[in-house]
Input
Amino acid sequence: MGEAYFYHLIRQPLEAALPVLLEKALAAGWRVAVRGRDAEQMEWLDRKLWLGPEESFLPHGLAGGAQDADQPVLLTCESGPAANDPACLMVLSGAPLGPDEVKRMQRVCVLFDGADPAAMEQARACWKALTAAGCAAQYWSDESGRWEKKA
Output
């Protein structure tokens, strides 16, 4: 049974925090699905990940291609099982997430923007729903300039 880790982005933007978390997940030997709410956001992230430093290249692709099942990191807007059979799911911008998904994964990461009141409310509602369903959850914040476990 997996756990849900909630990452409250206060000091870092998504495009800085996500690559670090992806590197850790890949280092653990996990395939990852990154789920957003819309195609524009996923295309933007795709461009950002391609522009990262050469020494920390993150192999990834946008869902909908012929090689989806082979992608170590698959960017998608689809709910349900991802084509790359991930062990880790990263959920952005209040994209849908259910307790059954948390239970199937090694890890689920919920990233949310601390400057966005709607994102904060969505994260709170998600936390309540998942913990009420018996999912283990942790809350992390980068308020101090580095990730610290708060709950």
About this structure: The two ends are 19 Å apart (CA to CA).
